[in-house]
Structure formats: structure tokens, C-alpha cells
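Checklist before submission:
- one chain only
- standard amino acids only
- sequence pasted in full

Submission:
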Amino acid sequence: MHCASFDIFRTLGFPDTTVLKPDQFLRHKELLRDADWVLFPEYWQLNTLVHGLKCRVFPSIASYRIGHDKVEMTRVFQAIAPEHTPWTLITANGPQEREQIWQDMALPFVLEFNRLFGNQGLGQGTDLQDAILAYLHQCNEPRNPEEPMMPDPVWPVAV
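Returned file contents:
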């Protein structure tokens, strides 16, 4: 079995595995087509690899697609394993939604703002909320001058 990998560290020591640089993958189309598995591609490579070159990828395309967006991932978890998912509300960041969140959530709760670009997974835009004034301030404060303030999806999670 021959594999092609885009992550040298995750596949170090794997037998019969060719490591490729992600940005140079189109130079190796034949190798990729012939590989039994393509390991750890970048998200932006998926469509070309799976639909264009007909490669089998690991992790699965579903793992990439669901795991790439934490709002979608949360909704999937709520649908298939609600008993194992923290109580989570996903709403717009509007005045009525903020009031409803404050009424519905038990204190304290974690408030997290969805980021369309950058800073995902770095804990930025995530705060523990336990006082109404801090909560309202957090909802109204622009997080980045380049980002529009409204509408900004938020999802509080009970802790």
C-alpha cells in the first residue's frame, strides 16, 4: 500500500509513504492518483483531491467539512448526541437575542463570538460571563476594527 502525506510529522516512519509539500501538490498529480491513501491534506486541497483526482483522503472528507466550522460541528453534535453536548445556544448578536440569552442561560456561561477569518482556536472572543453589564459590554464591543460588529453570531455555552 502506497500513501502520499502532506504532514511529515504525523506520518514520520510510515512505510511506503511519500511526503509532499501542500503548495506543490499539483506537480505530483500522478503520484496522488496512484496512491492508495492521501494523508492529512489541507482543507483547501480537498475538492481538487477528492473530486478532481479521485483520491481517498484521511481524515475523511466529512471530518474536514464538519470540523472546519465549529457552529456546524456543534449543530451536528446536537443532532446526533445531544446528551453528550453542552447546552449551547447559537444566535445572532442582536438586542433581542442578547436579552433572550441572558434570560435563558444559567450563570456563569461562556460567550463566544464566531470568527469568519483568523484567530479560530486561540481563545480570542471567548469570555466567562457572570454579570449583565460585562455581558452587554462584550456583545457590543468591536473585536477588530476591520470586522463588522453586526450581525455577529454568538453561542453561549453553559459551564
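Reviewer check: Residues 3-66 form one domain.
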